[in-house]
Automatic annotation (TrEMBL):
The keyword Coiled coil applies. It comes from Morella rubra. GO terms for biological process: negative gravitropism; response to red or far red light. Residues 65-75 have a biased composition (Acidic residues). Keywords: Coiled coil. Residues 54-91 are annotated as: Disordered. PANTHER family: PROTEIN GRAVITROPIC IN THE LIGHT 1 (PTHR31161). This is Uncharacterized protein.
């Protein structure tokens, strides 16, 4: 065999890379094979060899130094740039025994290749054939090593894939269990949603019914409001009359006890000009009204329980600690001064009873309780109609207005007054405060000045 040029395939595994690296490091020389005098022949042979050199062959040509691994080579005038081959160090497929066998086989191949070269000079066909067979045997050994490596690599790959599949199966099983749980939760949630939807429909129907009831109640309240305004007017008139009724015995008791009524009236409304001496009673009514409505606050409460009693003392006996009972105690102590009570009765028994939480069943206290009842009811009805209800007062000297005021004099009620005369009339005394309930007005009761006051000793 004149020249054997093998063209190995491109390395595709770690073994192939190791073989290529080893062949590059251990580049062969044919030392002593070519005589020095046959230099030209050697050069021609060397040039001939380079012309048939395969750049992909990992085995270096004869006469090339190992240090020329990365140098450029020429073939038929063309430059070839060999690239260094890196060996992966991360492979764990081959053990120490396989690496040792690989190196031994490569060393044997090297010796067989040297023998093949030596068989050409002097030319010996028998030696060439023997050396060629030896080279082929060594190459077959390398191929066997390569096949064993690939088989191990494939086996490891199968093991790796099997391990990955096992892990995937475990994860799939866990995912399926989770999916089953989620489906169960979705089913439960769907049932809950359906139940809530049915409940919502029921609530919506109930809301519609409630809206209709509210509309009916609102309409009824609107109608009742008109009735309540009428009831409020009645309570206002009853409170005004009850104050007048309580002022009568109070004035009588004061006169019987020796009180100076003129001086008392003057202390209540100083500089008030009365058209008649009898009109001084309005000063006492104004005093009582001022005390009864002092600190007047609109508080919501039910007046029906007290209204069902004709005698307020019975209501106080039935509900001694009610709001009405507390209202009576507070107002009696405020209206009836201890000096008045002592001068009337010679003792303070009424005050003592009231301070102890009781209510004496006497004619004087009964008249007072009746007055307190109507003032208390007036407050409760006004608040029930309008929580924002307001009470207003009129100062002395204010200009008369028939929108917000009403005269307490009998001869002035409903009487036609000339425009000029109405413009000149002024308020001398406020007897009863007024109320503003929504858009309605309860006019305050006032005592007006007279253009021609009648002379006389008061």
């Amino acid at each position: 065999m004149a020249h054997v040029a093998t063209k190995p395939s491109k390395p595709s595994s770690n073994i192939s890379e190791i073989v290529s690296k080893f062949a590059k490091v251990c580049k062969l020389r044919s030392i002593g094979v070519i005589p020095s005098e046959n230099t030209n022949q050697h050069n021609q042979h060397h040039h001939h060899y380079h012309c048939y050199h395969n750049p992909n062959d990992n085995t270096s040509p004869l006469g090339e130094d190992s240090s020329d691994a990365t140098e450029e080579m020429e073939c038929d005038g063309e430059k070839v740039h060999p690239q260094p081959i890196e060996v992966s160090s991360g492979s764990t497929v081959c053990g120490d025994g396989e690496i040792t066998e690989l190196f031994d086989t490569v060393s044997a191949l090297k010796l067989a290749y040297i023998q093949l070269q030596e068989a050409h000079i002097p030319y010996s066909s028998d030696k060439i054939i023997a050396a060629d067979e030896l080279v082929v045997a060594r190459l077959e050994a390398l191929c066997k090593i390569k096949r064993v490596y690939k088989e191990k690599q494939f086996s490891n790959k199968e093991k790796l894939e099997s391990s990955v599949c096992s892990r995937l199966k475990v994860r799939i099983a866990a995912g399926e269990r989770l999916l089953k749980d989620l489906k169960s939760q979705v089913k439960a949630k769907s049932s809950e949603i359906l139940r809530l939807q049915q409940e919502l429909q029921g609530l919506e129907l109930g809301n519609m019914e409630l809206v209709e009831k509210v509309r009916q109640i609102s309409l009824a309240k609107k109608n009742a409001r008109l009735l309540s305004i009428s009831a409020l007017n009645d309570a206002f008139d009853a409170a005004s009359k009850s104050i007048h009724d309580f002022a009568k015995p109070l004035i009588s008791l004061m006169k019987a006890s020796g009180w100076d009524l003129d001086l008392a009236a003057k202390s209540i409304g100083d500089a008030v000009v009365y058209s008649k001496r009898s009109h001084k009673k309005y000063a006492f009514e104004a005093y009582i009204s001022r005390r009864m409505f002092y600190g007047f606050t609109f508080k919501s409460y039910n007046v029906s329980a007290i209204m069902r009693f004709d005698d307020p003392i019975d209501a106080l006996t039935e509900y001694p600690n009610s709001d009405f009972g507390e209202f009576c105690r507070k107002k009696f102590l405020l209206v009836v001064h201890p000096m008045l009570e002592a001068s009337f009765f010679g003792n303070l028994d009424h005050r003592t009873f009231v301070l102890s939480g009781k209510h004496p069943r006497t004619p004087f206290y009964q008249i007072f309780a009746k007055m307190a009842k109507w003032v208390w009811v007036l407050q409760g009805i006004a608040t029930s109609i309008d929580p924002e209800a307001k009470i207003f007062t009129v100062d002395r000297g204010s200009k008369f207005s028939d929108v917000h005021m009403e005269s307490v004099e009998e001869d002035m009620k409903g009487a036609a007054v000339a425009d000029g005369e109405r413009a000149t009339r002024r308020v001398e005394l406020m007897v009863m405060p007024g109320f503003k309930i929504g858009e309605s007005w309860l006019r305050s009761l006032v005592y007006l000045s007279n253009l021609k006051p009648s002379p006389g000793k008061c």
